[in-house]
Amino acid sequence: MTDTILETVATFIAQEQLFPVQGTVVVAVSGGADSLCLLHLLMRLCGPGKRYPHITLHVAHLDHQLRGEASERDALAVARLAQSWQLPYTSGTCDVYALARTEQRSLEDAARQARYRFLREVAQGQPIAVAHQQDDQAETLILHWLRGGGLSSQIGLQPRQQDIIRPLLCLSRADTLAYCQRYQLTPLEDASNSDTRFLRNRIRHELLPLLEQINPGIRATLLRTAEVMEVDHAWIEEQVSAHWPHVVISASDQAISLRRNALLALPLSLQRHLLRRVTAQLSGGQSPLELRHFKLLEQFLLHEGNGEELSMDLPGQLRMRRRREELFFTHQQTTEPLPQETHEAVLLPIPGECAVPGTRWIAEARWLDEAEAERVRQALRAEDWDEVWRILHFTRYVVYIDGDSVGKTFRVRTRRPGDRMQPLGMQHEKKVQDVLVDKRISRAEREQLPLFFKEQPEQQCVWLGGVTLDQRVRLTPQTQRILCLLLKNQP
Question: Is the alpha carbon torsion for 370, 371, 375, 378 positive or negative?
């Protein structure tokens, strides 16, 4: 059966042309059965000597901070798995509760938004593989129907949507569970998947079983209906593409401008589908507009006005402005104020500790005990990452680095404008401010986080405390001395 699953997925990938000829595919791994199945299957298909020899994989996991220590344990488990399978790995954190409040979204929607923002930051334009399967498709179709929407919402999840690919849409949840059992993959249990406060869980555990009592084949019926609608939707999208050059003046990921008269010349259906595409492109792939928003936009477009500039706020931090016969759709990036107070850096000797000015933290650096360090070195040389994780206890506030990659002291302080680092798993430096925004660290917390800098050169940030290490100081098979950095609360 498991070989059949492999061939089914391989055929589906080929038919839908999901993979590039070469490059990296970022695999979103939560640790559940579906994502474990996806990662294991892609490992069997990608790499030298395999069906896709020029495709490499990169594991990504976001901690939504919804389940406290359980979320941290899941993140650690996925990290250990990636290291044991010798795959590059990037993790992130996001306070989804805070995001939901800030952006006035439901908790489910905020989690989804945060997840895709994080994955796109990791992918940098490369394809992102997610583990949606047919049961997810059925649940999504019902969810869209309950919320209301047009034809676009009733085709459900697609094998490819912009940079998102779904290689498992040819499988069921029963298939992924059977695959994990066959290959002794142990899924992580997420208690929130049973929490019926979330609408998707109510659909999964209450509504779908009720519908199955009426129609035992309801899941197949939903998938079949979506397939019928998809043909009509594809034709409409072709029409949108044909009219796009005549309506759109310029387009980027942050702003799109349109010709008002050219848009109004289209049938109402094409107007709405074109606006849906515009707002989806500015919102990371999914338009936030509902029927009421389209009707407001139509009133706005038909208003003749007297030549003054008009503007209208839309969901998802979108804004539309009208200047004479030109329409401007923009995504309003959240900008953060600079820290209210800049504190001087303090010297942290190695080994030693110091209080970090303006924060509640004491920073400490200490060498790993030699006996323990030798065990870690042996595991590193063998690339036995499970053993490394068993010996060392990484947490958000306790990390281990290559001691020979730093000098004899650190400078520790809170952030300043222009601070940069190369986050773990990244190939290039980024602004610390962008790292904090991407990982959804709250503004209040940002001003309290200590940054550890190599004294020479000072501008190289070694650790953004509680968030991420710098790629250049990570442990490797060549590591000889191991330095522990930690943060603890001031008494």
Answer: positive
Q: Are residues 327 and 363 in the same domain?
A: no
- Tokens 């010297």 map to which residue? 347
Question: Which residues sit opposite 365 in a β-bridge?
Answer: 352, 485
Say if residues 84 and 52 touch (Cβ distance below 8 Å): no
Rounded to the nearest 10°, the torsion over CA 2, 24, 135, 287 is -170
Number of structural domains, the chain?
A: 3
Q: What CATH number does the domain containing 260 carry?
A: 3.30.465.60
Instruction: Compute the chain's Rg from CA coordinates.
Output: 25
Asked, for residue 229, whether it belongs to a domain, the answer is: no
Does residue 428 share a domain with residue 310?
no
188 and 119 fall within a common domain: yes
Residue 26's φ and ψ, nearest 5 degrees, are -85, 125
What is the identity of the amino acid at 289? L
Quote the CA–CA distance of 381 and 389 in Å, as a whole number: 14
Q: Does the pLDDT of residue 334 top 50, yes or no?
A: no
- At residue 5, the pLDDT reads 94
Q: Taking the complete model, does pTM exceed 0.90, yes or no?
A: no
Give the H/E segment covering residue 89: strand 89-93
Q: What are the tokens at 335?
A: 């900008």
Alpha carbon distance 116, 161 (integer Å): 12
